[in-house]
């Protein structure tokens, strides 16, 4: 795992977008794992910008989102499909047939989860997985005690997650209580992982996830076992990291990061 600290949330999201763009330029048929949430809005808006100004081409990309609420239709205003359409898919040249989210209205949710895993396998696996982190340390909706080898399945959301997402629904009682989510094991199979966290409210959980012991209570800690995981944070989210000076030095000195030092 490596940690990259950028001065602001915009710079952190901009770096994530540039890393994604670099991979797509190298491998136009990239299989991308995508996340939703407030943190990702900046990333999608930078990717749209790169599409508009630098002709970043998504036409051959294939995407799999981490999760979807159970009980919401794809065209529901609060569904993650709607979020993805509004923030990203409708604004770039991606082929909609290559975009995948679990179907929260499937009549048999277990069959839907198995089919989602099969779809990822059929696409050749996820090349680059984008992640946010919840205040409880979840990645996807892998709430506390999610098995570190879990696959796509239905999870009950914690009260903390429901409260975190309530502002988007206007009222906590309207937030669905369950979601289909890729498992921790599904995420760990991705060839490369980028986790983005910004803002002071994420500082404690980022430090715990990156520098704390690996535990199923905090699914993000499993990423310490991933061979190619980069955690990108702004200064606010980095404020509780014990090794921050070392992480800053890595970005300032390692040749791999040289092309990305200019804002
Ligand atoms: C969303 C997802 C979640 C979010 C996390 C952070 O698809 O998988 O794990 O990434 O809850 O959400 P924000 O960015 O809204 O704080």
Largest sheet: 7 strands, parallel
CA radius of gyration is 17 Å
Oligomer: single chain
Arrangement of strands in the largest sheet: 1-10-9-6-2-3-5
The portion of residues forming beta strands comes to: 15-25%
Content-based structural category = alpha/beta
* Low-pLDDT residue spans: none
Per DSSP, the total helix count is 8
Q: Which percent range fits the helix content?
A: 25-40%
Element-by-element helix/strand order: EHEHEEHEHEEHEHEHEH
Overall pLDDT metric: 97
End-to-end span in angstroms? 23 Å
Q: What ligands does this structure carry?
A: fructose -6-phosphate
Number of strands: 10
Shape: globular
Architecture overview:
- This protein is of the alpha/beta class and 263 residues long.
- Helices cover 35% and strands 16% of the residues.
- It is built from eight helices and ten strands.
- The chain has helices at residues 9-26, 38-54, 80-87, 109-122, 159-169, 184-188, 203-211, 244-253, and strands at 2-6, 31-34, 62-65, 67-69, 99-100, 128-131, 153-156, 178-181, 192-197, 229-234.
- The longest helix is centred in the N-terminal third of the chain and has 18 residues, at 9-26.
- The chain starts with a strand and ends in a 10-residue tail after the last helix.
- The model has no long low-confidence stretch (mean pLDDT 97).
- The protein binds fructose -6-phosphate.
- Fructose -6-phosphate binds at residues 35-39, 66-67, 132-134, 138-140.
């Amino acid at each position: 795992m490596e940690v990259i600290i950028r001065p602001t949330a915009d710079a952190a999201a901009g770096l994530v977008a540039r890393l994604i763009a670099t991979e797509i330029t190298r491998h136009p048929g990239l299989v991308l794992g995508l996340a939703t949430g407030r943190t990702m809005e900046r990333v999608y808006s930078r990717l749209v910008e790169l599409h508009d100004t630098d002709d970043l081409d998504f036409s051959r990309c294939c995407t799999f989102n981490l999760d979807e609420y159970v009980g919401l239709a794809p065209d529901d205003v609060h569904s993650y499909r709607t979020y993805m359409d509004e923030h990203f898919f409708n604004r770039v040249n991606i082929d909609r047939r290559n975009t995948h989210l679990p179907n929260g209205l499937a009549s048999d949710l277990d069959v839907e989860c198995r089919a989602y895993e099969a779809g990822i396998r059929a696409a050749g696996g996820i090349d680059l997985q984008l992640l946010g982190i919840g205040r409880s340390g979840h990645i996807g909706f892998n709430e506390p005690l999610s098995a570190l080898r879990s696959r796509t399945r239905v999870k009950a959301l914690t009260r903390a997650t429901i409260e975190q997402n309530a502002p988007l629904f206007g009222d906590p009682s309207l937030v669905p209580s369950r979601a289909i989510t890729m498992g921790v094991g599904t995420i760990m199979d991705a060839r490369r992982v980028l986790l983005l966290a910004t803002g002071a409210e994420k500082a404690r959980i980022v430090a715990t996830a990156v520098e704390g012991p690996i535990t199923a209570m905090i699914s993000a800690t499993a990423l310490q076992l991933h061979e190619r995981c980069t955690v990108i944070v702004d200064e606010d989210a980095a404020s509780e990291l014990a090794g921050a000076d070392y992480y800053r030095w890595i970005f300032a000195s390692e040749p791999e990061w040289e092309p990305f030092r200019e804002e």
